[in-house]
Amino acid sequence: MNYDSHSQLDIPINEKVKGLPGLFGLQLEEQAPYEILKADGGIEIRSYKSQTRASISITGEFKEAYKEAFNSLAGYIFGSNKTSEKIQMTTPVILQETASKEWTMSFILPQQFVAQTAPTPDDNRIHLEECPLHLVASISYAGINNEEKINEYTGILKKWLKKRPWYIPLSDFKTAQYDGPLTIPFFRKNEIHINVKHIH
Question: Residue 22 pLDDT > 50, yes or no?
Answer without folding.
Answer: no
